[in-house]
Amino acid sequence: MTARNKPAPLPPGSPTTGPADSAWLRRSLDALGLSQVDLSRLVGVSTVSVSGWAVGRHPVPPSVARFLEVLDALPETRRRAILAAYRLIDRPEA
User: Fold this and answer.
1) pTM of the predicted model, to two decimals?
2) What CA–CA distance (Å, rounded) separates 43 from 46?
3) Rounded to whole angstroms, how far apart are CA atoms 18 and 48?
C-alpha cells in the first residue's frame, strides 16, 4: 500500500487496453491488497475459479477485470465500505 493507506494503482496493461491475463490479475490483486479468496467472495465465484484465472488455466473474464478496474477507481472511503460489507476488512474508516 502507498501513503495514507491507499493501494497502488492497478498495473499497466489493464484490460481496457487489451485482454487481462493471469499476471495482470495477480499484480492487480496485490495492488488492491486482495487475496484470491477475497476476489472469489467479491465476484461470487469459487476459489478454484479464481485460482484457475491466476495461474492461466482459464482466461480472466472481462467482467471481473472491469470490476477490479472500477474498484481501483473508487475513492478510498467507498472501496473500504465495499470491502467491509463483504467482511474483508473490519470496518470502513471515516
Assistant:
1) 0.77
2) 9
3) 24
